[in-house]
């Protein structure tokens, strides 16, 4: 059943590449790198965001950070989603000061955003103690 669901989501992201909710749901179905590598995904910039998101969930923060840095270089420097994803990866890799910087940069861009504030709060708590 899981393979069938996986194939439906892959088909969906092939047909509607910008449907981020389908990509997000697909992330939840990836529980190992082999499954990620076996997906037949469309060649599209959003695929890289998906990979970064998968790598942070698979506890591969260094790969997530690498992709996030590349995305920032090519024009996503004002994307709070990318910055907060990078913060989560830094937190996973115990690079708390870098994680804090990413969260603060995201808050400068959109001061009223509450996404990932739990991560920012955890980072500040650990840094203070």
Description of the molecule:
With about 130 residues, this protein is mainly α. It has a single domain, classed as Tetratricopeptide repeat domain (Serine Threonine Protein Phosphatase 5, Tetratricopeptide repeat, Alpha Horseshoe). It has helices at about 1-15, 20-25, 35-40, 45-55, 60-75, 80-90, 95-110, 115-129. It has eight helices and no strands.
How do the strands and helices of this protein lay out in sequence?
Layout: H1 2-15, H2 20-27, H3 33-38, H4 45-57, H5 61-76, H6 80-92, H7 96-109, H8 117-128
Quick structural gist:
By secondary structure, the protein is an all-alpha fold. 74% of the residues lie in helices and 0% in strands.
N/C terminus separation: 46 Å
Major sheet summary line: none
Q: How would you classify the helix and strand content by structural class? A: mainly alpha
CA-based gyration radius: 15 Å
Q: What is the highest CATH level, the class?
A: Mainly Alpha
- Annotation, overall tally of beta strands: 0
Mean pLDDT: 93
Keywords:
single chain; 129 residues; mainly alpha; Serine Threonine Protein Phosphatase 5, Tetratricopeptide repeat; 8 helices; 74% helix; 0% strand
């Amino acid at each position: 059943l899981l393979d069938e669901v996986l194939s439906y989501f892959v088909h969906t992201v092939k047909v509607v590449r910008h449907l981020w909710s389908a990509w997000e749901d697909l992330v939840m179905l990836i529980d190992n790198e082999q499954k990620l590598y076996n997906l037949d995904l469309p060649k599209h910039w959003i695929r890289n965001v998906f990979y970064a998101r998968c790598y942070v969930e698979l506890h591969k923060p260094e790969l997530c950070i690498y992709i996030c840095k590349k995305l920032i270089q090519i024009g996503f420097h004002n994307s709070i989603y990318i910055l907060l994803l990078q913060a989560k990866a830094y937190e996973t890799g115990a690079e708390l000061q870098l994680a804090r910087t990413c969260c603060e940069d995201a808050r400068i861009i959109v001061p009223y955003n509450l996404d990932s504030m739990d991560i920012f709060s955890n980072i500040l708590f650990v840094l203070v103690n």
